[in-house]
Amino acid sequence: MPKPVYEKGDVTVLWNQAVHTDREVTANRPDIIIKNKKEKTCTLIDAAMPAQRNLMQKEAEKKLKYKSLCIEIQRMWNLKCTIIPVIIGATGIVTRSLRKNLEAVPRKHSIDSLQKTVMLGTSHIIRKVLQCEASSLGGGDHRWFKRITRKKRPVTRDIHIE
To answer: What does pTM read for this prediction?
Structure first.
């Protein structure tokens, strides 16, 4: 887990920190906030890993969710604010705009490594769910789990020709 606040020169990076504003803003805790005092910019980054059918919807939802926070940051801190949603489907599918969104984030970022991280997380969740279901079967009976995970044997049949 990264430090909640990281400062180097004119750049401050906030990790999972709430922004306190003069006006009430319900969505005030994006995943990452990059504040660059020299360039007078503030970047709000929020990530999500939805099911494939919800990718575009989730991207629009993130932009709308943090719009009022972005307006408040511009007003209070006098910085140009942008919202960058990082949306990668649970099986690694990405939106068309992800590459463009990542270009706005300082430093180089690999979409391949982000996809790999998401897919490893998905497989971890699936493994945990299967373990929970297997252990919840009466008295530690894991026959159901063994049945779905065992290797299939090729079917051989004896053919009798008369």
So the answer is: 0.72
